[in-house]
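Note to self: user wants both folds in one dump. Writing first protein now.
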Amino acid sequence: MYKGAISALVLPFKNGSIDEEAYREFIEWQIESGINGLVPCGTTGESATLTHAEHEKAIHICIDQVKKRVPVIAGCGSNNTVEAIRLCKFAKDAGADSAMLITPYYNKPTQEGLFRHYKAVNDEVAIPLFVYNVPSRTGCHVTPNTMARLYKELPNIIGIKEATGNLVQVSNILEQTDDKFTMLIGDDNTVLPSLAIGAHGTISVTSNVMPKEVSALCKAWFDGNTEEAKRLHYLIEPLNRAMFVEANPIPVKTALHLMGKMTAELRLPLTEMSEAGEKVLRDAMKLLKLI
């Protein structure tokens, strides 16, 4: 069910509020372009700045627009375990296919604390769960041993969004799990090498801008067309780099604005791109004929 290119959705704003029309149109474009799944309310969707009501609205709109055509993995993480449980209950009731929970940020829990956090959610909500490991943002790292323990002991844990960009980490997790475990890569630069060692796909920032190409890369690999997968990897790489020249989602939202998909409006503390950063982004997009 979770295989290929899954977009970590950007959330459009207009005059301080969610731009529902642009959001629905963007979701539709993603599906029409061949994307294999969608993640509302992740980091790329500026989840950290949303009110509870906005968080629920963004998930609800996505599920309603998708209408089960592709899987929806709802972003439900929090550094407050009770809040994570509440968000997961909402996602399940709203019809999400699964939920993604970032590791508790700022608190800096031990590995045992991480296990108990996810166990609490597992025990309260019967929905498939993805762990989201991105220590560069959270200051909290899920070790391969802990991930294997979560998977083996908690029946609702089905996989991970692994965003360290560390192939050894990816390999060690896969080594300690089994073929039912779902490895989704959260680092766009290492999607292809991760597929080569057993990953099932990517939860991608870049696919917001190039859904057709990122999906095609994954499909080419799974079809055994390694040369085409490699060609697409190197084609996309300039945009992958540009997506992270400043903090995500500043570049990706700017790129979509340049393509006419939405406004460039961000919420503080995120701000518009610097002149130097935008030049890098524009150069990459011109190279790929996106603008």
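First done. Writing the second protein, which came from a different request thread.
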Amino acid sequence: MGIEIMGLYDRDYTQSDFQSQHRHAPRMRMSFPQPTPVVKWLLIVNIVVFLSGFLIPKFGAFLLYWFSVWPKDLGTSMQIWRLITYQFLHGGLGHIFWNMFILFFFGPMLEQLWGSRKFLNFYLICGAMGGIFYPILAHIGWLDRGILIGASGSILGMLAAAAILFPNMIVYVFGVFPLRMSVLAIILAVMSILSLLRPDVSANAGGEAAHLGGMVAGALYVISEKWRRRFKMKVRTGVWQKKMVEQQNLQDDVDRILKKVHDYGLHNLTHKEKKILKQATKTEQMRNK
């Protein structure tokens, strides 16, 4: 399921309009990028798994049987771990080479922009969406049921994200033809759609389903970022307001109970009132630590 793209980014994408939105974006230079932490480990894990399965065929067969996306029946399709593990399996040298090549060049700029944790979540989500989309099409009879492996869903998700974030970035297809990142993403999406429309003539319709699923996930992740940020802020604000109301209610109860103690003595407190005082004391102690 590899995509045959050979690209070197040689243009600085830190234009004024981009800088205003992404102040901490990395600068792109005409040189090999320095692998970032998550990209480095993704490369290592993918290569180690591939070599292990290649050098030990029985182990490779074991990996395919238990860790690929394989919609042979509903039970196998519900084995959720496959949505992650299939991303680290590859069918041949060309397959893993192109996927890791693109990860090596495009991964660092997204990881530097988002941070390691966010980038890893994004990468795995894109791959998982590709792993979900293919079984759906297989179970409804649109595609044949076979084994799906490879990181292409994640890789295409990265390219879709890069096309939205850096639409004017120039890449070289096959090392020769310069294309804007946005144009390249559109071409790849159209190719996947056409392959899915005619699965009978496509040699890799299942892979194209994973490609398209990954691209949609990558695009939605970037497009929805502002909305998700506002939603998280709204949730946090609501939680904070609720906490403040609870604290105020507790303080009102404490004031009332203390007045009762002053007027009638501690022995006249109910069990509930004593519990409230104990809770207030514990809260104050934690606050002072």
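Dump finished. Worth passing along: Residues 233-288 form one domain.
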